[in-house]
Each structure stands twice: as C-alpha cells, then as structure tokens.
Amino acid sequence: MNTRKHNNNDALLIVARAMLLLVPLMLATPSRASAYADPGTGAFMYQAAYAAFLGGSFYLRKLLDRFWLKRKKDSPRAAPVEMSATPKSF
User: Fold this and answer.
1) CA dist 34 to 14, 24, 37, 49, 80, Å?
2) What is the pLDDT of residues 57-71, one digit of tens each?
3) HEC sequence for 29-70
C-alpha cells in the first residue's frame, strides 16, 4: 500500500491551481453590470415557469402511468369476464 503524507507543498499547489483558474474568470467579468428589464420580461418569466410546471406535470403523469400499467400487468388477476356482442333484452 502506498501511503503518502501531505505536506505544505501539496496545499500550495492546490491553491496555485485554484488561483490560475479563478483570477482570469474574475478579470473577465464586468465590475458593474447595468441592465434594463422591460415590462414584458416579468410576464415572460411567469409564462416560462408556468410552461415548465405544466410540461413537467404531464411528463411525470405519463411516467407514473407507465409505471402503474407495468405493475398492473405483473400482478395476478382473475380470468376476464366474457361479454357478448349483442345486448340482452329484458
């Protein structure tokens, strides 16, 4: 078994790698962002949230229906009752 003791050089190497990744990202982002949101933006956000909720609920319902149908097929049932094609008169 190869056991290696961590020393300060390993910690320094980790910090240096993190700084090499984070410093360019911090320099690339603007210091102050000025943005304008028109009145239709809020309506668009509500519409997107509503559509995501409805789409997710239909997908979940279809997924659960598929699960329940599969489960019903696996369960033992009584023999089906045969029905005649012509209705009986009283």
Assistant:
1) 35, 22, 10, 25, 69
2) 999 999 888 877 776
3) CCCCCCCCCCHHHHHHHHHHHHHHHHHHHHHHHHHHHHHHHH
**Alpha-carbon distance 61 to 59, whole Å?**
5
* pLDDT value at residue 87: 62
Q: What is the pLDDT of residues 24-49, one digit of tens each?
A: 888 887 777 677 777 788 888 899 99
Sign for the pseudo-dihedral over CA of 18, 23, 24, 29: positive
Report d(CA 74, CA 68) in Å as an integer. 10
The DSSP call for residue 85 is: S
Q: Output the pTM of the full model.
A: 0.38
Which candidate, 73, 53, 75, places its Cα nearest to that of 65? 73
